[in-house]
Write a structure and sequence with these properties.
Layout (H helix, E strand, L loop, with lengths): L9 E4 L7 H7 L4 E5 L2 H6 L3 H9 L3 E5 L8 H13 L4 E6 L1 H13 L6 H4 L1 E2 L9 E5 L11 E5 L5 E5 L7 E4 L9 H19 L7 H23 L4 H20 L4 H13 L3 H30 L9 H15 L16 H8 L3 H4 L8 H11 L1
Parallel strand pairs: 1-9, 2-3, 2-4, 4-6, 5-8, 6-9
Antiparallel strand pairs: 7-8
Helix pairs in contact: 1-3, 4-5, 7-8, 7-9, 7-11, 8-9, 10-11, 10-13, 11-12, 11-15, 13-15
C-alpha cells in the first residue's frame, strides 16, 4: 500500500466559531488581513460577526467583495491589486467555492515573482504563500480543504491551479453561516459534495484507502441530511452535518481526483452559466449509468453506504436510483432544456468536455466524444 494524503493543517468545526476569527488570525501572525468575499455575503450581513471579531482584536483589514461565480482572471487580478496596495500579510476566503478559490490565488501570488498564467496546471506554483484561513458559507465545494483553484480563462473555458501550497492553514466550519442559504443553493451544493465523494471513491488515479474512508463517511452523512437541510433550512444539526460531510468529500477528492461528471459539468457552466453544483447534478445519473460496466463493484459498495441495494435492485442500480430520488426530493431540475440548452448545441458541449483531459483521465471508464454526446442527449 503506497499513497500520499495531504489536507488543511487545522479544522475548526463549531457552530458560532466565527466570533473567534480575530484571535485565530492573530495567532497566525496576521496584522493586516484581506477578506475575499462576494456582494451577496455582504448584503446578507454574514460578514458582520467576523468583522466584529477582527475589530475586537484591533486588527486591520481590507475587504474585496466583488467575487462572482466562476471567477474570471480579472477578479483575481483586482483582489491581488488590493492586497498589494494595502500590504496585507494574511488572506481569508469567506463564502462559497469561488471566494475561497480567489483567496487561495491571492495568498499564493502576493509577493510572488510568478503571474497567474505561470501557475496554471499541476504543480507549477512555487514558493510560499501568505497565511490563509477559509470560511465556507455553503456546504458543497470543499475548497477549504483542497489544493485546487479554478479560474475562468475565456468566454467558456476554465483552468485549474493545483498545488499543495494552496492548502489553507485553517478551515473554519460555522454552520450558523449557512442557515440563510436558499433551498435551491443548499440542494445544488449538497449534490455537488456527494459527487465529490462518489468520484473520489471510483477515481482511476490515486484512489487510496484514506480517501475511500472519507468518501464513504461523507456520502453517508450527506445523504442522511441533505433533504432536511434543504427543506428545513433553520435546522442547525442538518446544516452542521452538511458542512462536515462536504469537507470530508473535499478531503477525499483532494487526494483522489474527480472525473467525468465534472468534465461534463464544466461546459454547462461555461456556456450557459449554470451553477457548478447544478451542472454536476444534471449529468450525474447519466454518467453513473455510463460507468456502471467498469465501476460496478465500487458502486455496489457505495450503494451499501446509501442503504440503496435490495433483493430486487442491484447495488449499482440502487446507487443510481438513490441519487435520482435525492435529486427529485430536493427539487432540482433534471433536464438541460430547462436552462435554454438547445439540442443542436449538444455537440459543442461534448467537444468542450473532451478538453477536460485532467478530469477524464480519472474516470473508471474511458470516455469518447460520442459517449459524452450520448450523455448530454440523455440529460437533454
Amino acid at each position: 500500500m503506497e499513497f500520499t494524503f495531504s489536507t488543511t493543517q487545522q479544522i475548526i468545526c463549531e457552530a458560532g466559531a466565527c466570533v473567534r476569527l480575530g484571535q485565530i488570525c492573530q495567532d497566525l501572525g496576521i496584522s493586516h488581513l484581506l477578506i475575499v468575499t462576494d456582494p451577496g455575503i455582504v448584503q446578507l450581513g454574514l460578514l458582520d460577526v467576523a468583522l466584529s471579531s477582527l475589530d475586537a482584536q484591533n486588527m486591520s483589514y481590507s475587504v474585496y467583495s466583488d467575487v462572482v461565480a466562476d471567477p474570471p482572471e480579472s477578479k483575481i487580478e483586482e483582489a491581488l491589486a488590493l492586497a498589494n496596495e494595502n500590504a496585507v500579510d494574511g488572506v481569508m476566503g469567506f463564502g462559497g467555492g469561488s471566494s475561497m478559490d480567489v483567496a487561495k490565488l491571492v495568498a499564493l501570488l502576493v509577493n510572488s515573482e510568478q503571474t497567474l498564467s505561470d501557475v496554471y496546471g499541476v504543480g507549477n506554483a512555487k514558493g510560499k504563500r501568505l497565511p490563509l484561513v477559509q470560511v465556507p458559507t455553503t456546504a458543497g465545494t470543499g475548497s477549504e480543504v483542497t489544493p485546487v483553484a479554478i479560474v475562468t480563462t475565456g468566454e467558456t473555458t476554465k483552468q485549474g491551479v493545483v498545488s499543495p501550497i494552496l492548502l489553507p492553514d485553517i478551515a473554519l466550519l460555522d454552520a450558523n453561516l449557512t442557515l440563510g442559504l436558499p433551498a435551491s443553493v443548499t440542494a445544488a451544493t449538497g449534490i455537488d459534495a456527494m459527487v465529490h465523494a462518489i468520484e473520489a471513491y471510483t477515481s482511476k488515479n490515486k484512489k487510496n484507502p484514506y480517501s475511500d474512508m472519507l468518501a464513504k463517511e461523507a456520502l453517508s452523512r450527506l445523504s442522511k441530511h441533505i433533504v432536511t437541510a434543504t427543506l428545513d433550512g433553520g435546522n442547525v444539526l442538518a446544516r452542521s452535518e452538511m458542512l462536515y460531510g462536504a469537507m470530508l468529500a473535499g478531503q477525499a477528492f483532494a487526494n483522489a481526483p474527480v472525473a467525468a461528471v465534472h468534465a461534463l459539468a464544466y461546459p454547462l457552466g461555461g456556456h450557459f452559466h449554470i451553477s457548478h453544483g447544478l451542472s454536476n447534478s444534471l449529468v450525474l445519473p447519466h454518467v453513473l449509468r455510463f460507468n456502471c460496466e467498469s465501476a460496478s463493484v465500487l458502486y455496489d459498495e457505495l450503494a451499501v453506504v446509501l442503504q440503496a441495494s435490495s433483493d430486487s435492485v442491484s447495488g449499482s442500480e440502487g446507487l443510481i436510483e438513490a441519487m435520482d430520488t435525492l435529486i427529485k426530493q430536493v427539487n432540482l431540475p433534471t433536464q438541460l432544456r430547462e436552462f435554454g440548452v438547445k439540442e443542436e448545441q449538444l455537440p459543442m458541449l461534448a467537444k468542450d468536455a473532451m478538453l477536460q483531459e485532467r478530469l477524464l483521465m480519472n474516470n473508471p471508464k474511458e470516455m469518447t466524444y460520442d459517449d459524452a454526446l450520448a450523455i448530454y442527449q440523455a440529460a437533454f
